[in-house]
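re: ur question from earlier - yeah i can do the single chain one, its not a big deal. heres the input i used so u can compare w yours
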Amino acid sequence: MQGEASPLRIVPATPADVEALAALLVETVAGNGSVGFMHPLDPAQARAFWEASLREVAQGGRIVLCAWREGTLLGTGSLVLVSAPSQPHRAELTKVMTSHAARGAGVGAALVAALEDAARARGRRLLTLDASLVDGPSGFYRRLGYRTTGDIPEYAYKPLGGLAPTRIMWKLLDAREPAPLPVDPAADERFMRLALELGERAAREDDEIPVGAVLVSAQGEVLGQGWNRNIGDHDPSAHAEILALREAGRRLGNYRLLGCTLYVTLEPCAMCAMALVHARIARLVYGAADPKTGACGSVFDLLGDPRHNHRVEVTGGVLGEEAGRRLSNYFRAKRGKPPL
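and the output i got, formated as C-alpha coordinates:
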Protein backbone atom coordinates (compact mmCIF):
# COMPACT_ATOMS: atom_id res chain seq x y z
CA MET A 1 0.00 0.00 0.00
CA GLN A 2 1.29 3.44 -0.87
CA GLY A 3 2.85 5.27 2.08
CA GLU A 4 3.75 2.11 4.03
CA ALA A 5 7.34 1.80 5.20
CA SER A 6 9.32 -0.94 3.50
CA PRO A 7 10.15 -3.91 5.75
CA LEU A 8 13.25 -4.01 7.91
CA ARG A 9 15.75 -6.59 6.66
CA ILE A 10 18.16 -8.10 9.21
CA VAL A 11 20.94 -10.15 7.64
CA PRO A 12 24.53 -11.19 8.42
CA ALA A 13 27.18 -8.58 7.62
CA THR A 14 29.41 -9.06 4.59
CA PRO A 15 32.70 -7.41 3.51
CA ALA A 16 30.65 -5.19 1.17
CA ASP A 17 29.05 -3.61 4.26
CA VAL A 18 32.30 -2.36 5.83
CA GLU A 19 31.96 1.26 4.65
CA ALA A 20 28.38 1.55 5.92
CA LEU A 21 29.30 -0.13 9.21
CA ALA A 22 32.28 2.20 9.65
CA ALA A 23 30.10 5.26 9.05
CA LEU A 24 27.59 4.04 11.65
CA LEU A 25 30.38 3.44 14.18
CA VAL A 26 31.78 6.95 13.62
CA GLU A 27 28.27 8.44 14.04
CA THR A 28 27.69 6.46 17.25
CA VAL A 29 30.98 7.57 18.79
CA ALA A 30 30.33 11.20 17.82
CA GLY A 31 27.00 10.90 19.65
CA ASN A 32 28.78 9.78 22.84
CA GLY A 33 27.79 6.15 22.43
CA SER A 34 29.86 3.78 24.58
CA VAL A 35 31.14 1.27 22.05
CA GLY A 36 34.80 1.17 23.00
CA PHE A 37 36.17 4.13 21.02
CA MET A 38 36.92 7.79 21.71
CA HIS A 39 35.82 10.79 19.67
CA PRO A 40 36.89 11.77 17.06
CA LEU A 41 37.12 8.32 15.56
CA ASP A 42 39.17 8.07 12.37
CA PRO A 43 37.06 6.38 9.65
CA ALA A 44 40.09 4.27 8.73
CA GLN A 45 40.19 2.94 12.28
CA ALA A 46 36.47 2.19 12.12
CA ARG A 47 36.94 0.29 8.85
CA ALA A 48 39.83 -1.67 10.35
CA PHE A 49 37.67 -2.66 13.31
CA TRP A 50 34.92 -4.06 11.10
CA GLU A 51 37.38 -5.81 8.80
CA ALA A 52 38.87 -7.55 11.84
CA SER A 53 35.37 -8.39 13.13
CA LEU A 54 34.39 -10.00 9.83
CA ARG A 55 37.58 -12.06 9.88
CA GLU A 56 36.48 -13.28 13.31
CA VAL A 57 33.05 -14.08 11.83
CA ALA A 58 34.74 -16.20 9.15
CA GLN A 59 36.62 -18.06 11.89
CA GLY A 60 33.39 -18.80 13.77
CA GLY A 61 34.05 -16.61 16.80
CA ARG A 62 31.58 -13.79 16.19
CA ILE A 63 28.21 -13.03 14.61
CA VAL A 64 27.53 -9.60 13.11
CA LEU A 65 24.03 -8.69 11.92
CA CYS A 66 22.94 -5.61 9.95
CA ALA A 67 19.49 -4.01 9.83
CA TRP A 68 18.71 -2.50 6.41
CA ARG A 69 15.78 -0.63 4.96
CA GLU A 70 15.72 0.47 1.31
CA GLY A 71 19.49 0.13 1.02
CA THR A 72 20.24 2.19 4.14
CA LEU A 73 22.00 0.67 7.14
CA LEU A 74 19.90 1.52 10.20
CA GLY A 75 21.66 -0.59 12.81
CA THR A 76 24.02 -3.39 13.67
CA GLY A 77 24.75 -5.75 16.54
CA SER A 78 27.27 -8.46 17.36
CA LEU A 79 27.58 -11.62 19.37
CA VAL A 80 30.96 -12.77 20.62
CA LEU A 81 30.78 -16.55 20.95
CA VAL A 82 32.69 -17.44 24.11
CA SER A 83 35.23 -20.16 23.36
CA ALA A 84 36.17 -21.20 26.92
CA PRO A 85 35.70 -24.98 27.32
CA SER A 86 33.70 -24.36 30.50
CA GLN A 87 31.30 -21.87 28.86
CA PRO A 88 30.03 -23.38 25.59
CA HIS A 89 26.54 -22.10 26.44
CA ARG A 90 27.44 -18.38 26.67
CA ALA A 91 27.79 -15.43 24.29
CA GLU A 92 28.41 -11.71 24.78
CA LEU A 93 26.09 -9.13 23.22
CA THR A 94 28.09 -6.15 21.96
CA LYS A 95 28.20 -3.25 19.49
CA VAL A 96 24.41 -2.87 19.23
CA MET A 97 24.01 0.47 17.43
CA THR A 98 21.22 2.24 15.57
CA SER A 99 21.54 5.32 13.43
CA HIS A 100 20.25 8.58 14.85
CA ALA A 101 17.51 8.68 12.19
CA ALA A 102 16.25 5.23 13.22
CA ARG A 103 15.97 5.83 16.97
CA GLY A 104 12.60 4.93 18.45
CA ALA A 105 11.53 2.89 15.42
CA GLY A 106 12.04 -0.55 16.96
CA VAL A 107 15.25 -1.27 15.05
CA GLY A 108 17.31 -1.94 18.17
CA ALA A 109 14.73 -4.32 19.64
CA ALA A 110 14.48 -6.18 16.33
CA LEU A 111 18.28 -6.51 16.18
CA VAL A 112 18.50 -7.86 19.72
CA ALA A 113 15.74 -10.38 18.99
CA ALA A 114 17.57 -11.53 15.85
CA LEU A 115 20.83 -11.85 17.81
CA GLU A 116 19.05 -13.92 20.44
CA ASP A 117 17.73 -16.22 17.72
CA ALA A 118 21.27 -16.53 16.32
CA ALA A 119 22.57 -17.36 19.79
CA ARG A 120 19.98 -20.11 20.23
CA ALA A 121 20.82 -21.53 16.81
CA ARG A 122 24.44 -21.92 17.95
CA GLY A 123 23.58 -23.50 21.27
CA ARG A 124 24.09 -20.35 23.36
CA ARG A 125 21.46 -19.79 26.01
CA LEU A 126 23.13 -17.28 28.35
CA LEU A 127 23.82 -13.77 27.01
CA THR A 128 25.81 -11.14 28.92
CA LEU A 129 26.49 -7.47 28.17
CA ASP A 130 27.68 -4.24 29.74
CA ALA A 131 25.79 -0.95 29.35
CA SER A 132 27.03 2.49 30.31
CA LEU A 133 24.96 4.26 32.96
CA VAL A 134 25.69 7.69 31.44
CA ASP A 135 23.47 8.14 28.37
CA GLY A 136 23.42 4.36 28.21
CA PRO A 137 20.88 1.75 27.09
CA SER A 138 20.38 -0.14 30.36
CA GLY A 139 16.67 0.77 30.41
CA PHE A 140 16.31 -0.48 26.83
CA TYR A 141 17.80 -3.86 27.73
CA ARG A 142 15.73 -4.10 30.89
CA ARG A 143 12.56 -3.75 28.78
CA LEU A 144 13.81 -6.65 26.65
CA GLY A 145 14.09 -8.93 29.67
CA TYR A 146 17.75 -8.48 30.64
CA ARG A 147 18.54 -8.54 34.34
CA THR A 148 21.14 -6.60 36.31
CA THR A 149 24.07 -8.27 38.06
CA GLY A 150 25.67 -5.09 39.36
CA ASP A 151 27.31 -1.76 38.57
CA ILE A 152 31.02 -1.02 38.23
CA PRO A 153 32.08 2.59 38.93
CA GLU A 154 34.54 4.38 36.63
CA TYR A 155 34.43 1.49 34.18
CA ALA A 156 35.35 3.40 31.02
CA TYR A 157 35.66 6.84 29.52
CA LYS A 158 32.76 8.10 27.42
CA PRO A 159 33.70 9.02 23.84
CA LEU A 160 33.32 12.75 24.60
CA GLY A 161 35.22 12.47 27.90
CA GLY A 162 34.56 11.65 31.54
CA LEU A 163 34.62 8.34 33.36
CA ALA A 164 31.28 6.57 33.61
CA PRO A 165 29.96 3.57 35.52
CA THR A 166 28.76 0.49 33.70
CA ARG A 167 25.96 -1.96 34.45
CA ILE A 168 26.56 -5.67 33.87
CA MET A 169 23.43 -7.42 32.57
CA TRP A 170 22.39 -10.90 31.51
CA LYS A 171 19.54 -12.89 30.02
CA LEU A 172 18.89 -16.61 30.07
CA LEU A 173 17.28 -17.78 26.84
CA ASP A 174 15.14 -20.36 28.59
CA ALA A 175 13.89 -23.17 26.39
CA ARG A 176 11.60 -24.71 29.01
CA GLU A 177 7.99 -25.34 28.05
CA PRO A 178 5.73 -22.40 29.00
CA ALA A 179 2.79 -22.93 31.30
CA PRO A 180 -0.46 -23.69 29.42
CA LEU A 181 -2.45 -20.60 28.56
CA PRO A 182 -5.87 -20.13 30.18
CA VAL A 183 -8.66 -21.14 27.80
CA ASP A 184 -12.06 -19.42 27.62
CA PRO A 185 -14.36 -21.58 25.42
CA ALA A 186 -16.89 -18.76 25.07
CA ALA A 187 -14.21 -16.37 23.82
CA ASP A 188 -12.86 -19.03 21.46
CA GLU A 189 -16.30 -19.49 19.92
CA ARG A 190 -16.90 -15.72 19.69
CA PHE A 191 -13.66 -15.02 17.85
CA MET A 192 -14.07 -18.08 15.64
CA ARG A 193 -17.49 -16.80 14.55
CA LEU A 194 -15.81 -13.54 13.58
CA ALA A 195 -13.29 -15.54 11.57
CA LEU A 196 -16.15 -17.41 9.88
CA GLU A 197 -17.75 -14.08 8.93
CA LEU A 198 -14.47 -12.98 7.37
CA GLY A 199 -14.30 -16.25 5.45
CA GLU A 200 -17.78 -15.56 4.06
CA ARG A 201 -16.54 -12.17 2.85
CA ALA A 202 -13.75 -13.94 0.98
CA ALA A 203 -16.31 -15.98 -0.93
CA ARG A 204 -18.93 -13.25 -1.33
CA GLU A 205 -16.75 -10.25 -2.16
CA ASP A 206 -13.70 -11.82 -3.81
CA ASP A 207 -14.82 -15.31 -4.87
CA GLU A 208 -11.89 -16.74 -2.90
CA ILE A 209 -11.79 -19.87 -0.74
CA PRO A 210 -13.71 -18.91 2.43
CA VAL A 211 -10.97 -18.91 5.04
CA GLY A 212 -10.93 -16.13 7.65
CA ALA A 213 -8.50 -15.31 10.44
CA VAL A 214 -8.49 -13.06 13.51
CA LEU A 215 -5.44 -12.13 15.61
CA VAL A 216 -6.30 -11.30 19.24
CA SER A 217 -4.07 -9.85 21.96
CA ALA A 218 -3.67 -11.37 25.42
CA GLN A 219 -6.11 -8.70 26.62
CA GLY A 220 -8.78 -9.79 24.14
CA GLU A 221 -8.32 -6.94 21.65
CA VAL A 222 -8.61 -7.71 17.94
CA LEU A 223 -5.31 -6.60 16.39
CA GLY A 224 -5.58 -8.04 12.90
CA GLN A 225 -8.09 -9.60 10.52
CA GLY A 226 -7.79 -11.26 7.15
CA TRP A 227 -9.35 -13.53 4.60
CA ASN A 228 -7.90 -15.33 1.62
CA ARG A 229 -6.72 -12.88 -1.06
CA ASN A 230 -4.43 -15.04 -3.22
CA ILE A 231 -6.30 -14.45 -6.47
CA GLY A 232 -7.26 -10.82 -5.97
CA ASP A 233 -3.81 -9.76 -4.77
CA HIS A 234 -1.91 -12.03 -7.20
CA ASP A 235 -0.01 -13.15 -4.13
CA PRO A 236 0.60 -16.82 -3.25
CA SER A 237 1.37 -15.81 0.34
CA ALA A 238 -1.90 -13.88 0.88
CA HIS A 239 -3.54 -16.48 3.09
CA ALA A 240 -5.96 -15.27 5.74
CA GLU A 241 -3.45 -15.96 8.53
CA ILE A 242 -0.66 -14.00 6.85
CA LEU A 243 -2.89 -10.98 6.24
CA ALA A 244 -4.04 -10.96 9.88
CA LEU A 245 -0.41 -11.18 11.07
CA ARG A 246 0.63 -8.34 8.76
CA GLU A 247 -2.13 -6.06 10.00
CA ALA A 248 -1.30 -6.77 13.64
CA GLY A 249 2.41 -6.22 13.04
CA ARG A 250 1.77 -2.84 11.45
CA ARG A 251 -0.57 -1.87 14.27
CA LEU A 252 1.92 -2.82 17.00
CA GLY A 253 5.01 -1.71 15.11
CA ASN A 254 6.60 -5.08 15.79
CA TYR A 255 6.96 -8.35 13.93
CA ARG A 256 6.84 -10.28 17.20
CA LEU A 257 3.26 -10.72 18.36
CA LEU A 258 3.92 -12.00 21.87
CA GLY A 259 1.01 -13.38 23.88
CA CYS A 260 -1.40 -13.27 20.94
CA THR A 261 -3.88 -15.92 19.77
CA LEU A 262 -4.71 -16.55 16.12
CA TYR A 263 -8.18 -17.83 15.24
CA VAL A 264 -8.55 -19.30 11.76
CA THR A 265 -11.34 -21.32 10.20
CA LEU A 266 -9.05 -23.89 8.55
CA GLU A 267 -5.96 -25.63 9.90
CA PRO A 268 -2.91 -23.63 8.68
CA CYS A 269 -0.63 -24.86 5.93
CA ALA A 270 3.14 -25.20 6.35
CA MET A 271 3.79 -21.59 5.28
CA CYS A 272 1.33 -20.15 7.79
CA ALA A 273 2.37 -22.52 10.57
CA MET A 274 5.98 -21.35 10.34
CA ALA A 275 4.84 -17.72 10.19
CA LEU A 276 3.17 -18.30 13.58
CA VAL A 277 6.46 -19.60 14.99
CA HIS A 278 8.44 -16.64 13.65
CA ALA A 279 5.85 -14.19 15.00
CA ARG A 280 6.01 -15.90 18.44
CA ILE A 281 2.25 -16.42 18.51
CA ALA A 282 1.24 -17.91 21.86
CA ARG A 283 -1.79 -19.91 20.74
CA LEU A 284 -3.50 -21.13 17.59
CA VAL A 285 -7.21 -21.96 17.48
CA TYR A 286 -8.52 -23.43 14.22
CA GLY A 287 -11.87 -24.71 13.03
CA ALA A 288 -11.76 -27.44 10.39
CA ALA A 289 -8.82 -29.82 10.04
CA ASP A 290 -7.15 -30.01 6.63
CA PRO A 291 -6.42 -33.65 5.74
CA LYS A 292 -4.50 -32.67 2.60
CA THR A 293 -2.11 -29.88 3.61
CA GLY A 294 -2.72 -29.26 7.32
CA ALA A 295 0.56 -28.54 9.09
CA CYS A 296 -0.63 -28.41 12.70
CA GLY A 297 -1.21 -32.10 13.30
CA SER A 298 -3.24 -33.48 10.39
CA VAL A 299 -0.57 -34.08 7.73
CA PHE A 300 2.46 -32.37 9.27
CA ASP A 301 2.99 -31.21 12.84
CA LEU A 302 5.30 -28.24 12.42
CA LEU A 303 4.12 -26.46 15.55
CA GLY A 304 4.86 -29.51 17.68
CA ASP A 305 8.40 -30.00 16.43
CA PRO A 306 10.65 -29.93 19.55
CA ARG A 307 13.52 -28.39 17.57
CA HIS A 308 11.78 -25.00 17.54
CA ASN A 309 12.86 -22.45 20.11
CA HIS A 310 9.25 -21.29 20.42
CA ARG A 311 6.14 -23.32 21.15
CA VAL A 312 2.65 -22.50 19.92
CA GLU A 313 -0.23 -24.00 21.89
CA VAL A 314 -2.82 -25.51 19.53
CA THR A 315 -6.58 -26.02 19.91
CA GLY A 316 -8.36 -27.52 16.92
CA GLY A 317 -11.97 -28.24 16.06
CA VAL A 318 -13.59 -25.06 17.43
CA LEU A 319 -16.79 -24.76 15.35
CA GLY A 320 -14.98 -27.20 13.09
CA GLU A 321 -18.12 -28.83 11.70
CA GLU A 322 -19.58 -25.49 10.63
CA ALA A 323 -16.25 -24.30 9.19
CA GLY A 324 -15.85 -27.54 7.24
CA ARG A 325 -19.40 -27.34 5.88
CA ARG A 326 -18.87 -23.78 4.61
CA LEU A 327 -15.69 -24.81 2.85
CA SER A 328 -17.38 -27.87 1.30
CA ASN A 329 -20.34 -25.81 0.11
CA TYR A 330 -18.03 -23.32 -1.58
CA PHE A 331 -16.43 -26.06 -3.66
CA ARG A 332 -19.78 -27.80 -4.27
CA ALA A 333 -21.16 -24.55 -5.68
CA LYS A 334 -18.16 -24.32 -8.02
CA ARG A 335 -19.06 -27.79 -9.32
CA GLY A 336 -22.78 -27.03 -9.61
CA LYS A 337 -23.77 -29.27 -6.72
CA PRO A 338 -26.38 -28.42 -4.05
CA PRO A 339 -25.16 -27.32 -0.61
CA LEU A 340 -24.90 -29.77 2.25
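Residues 7 and 69 are 7 Å apart (CA to CA). not sure if urs matches, ping me
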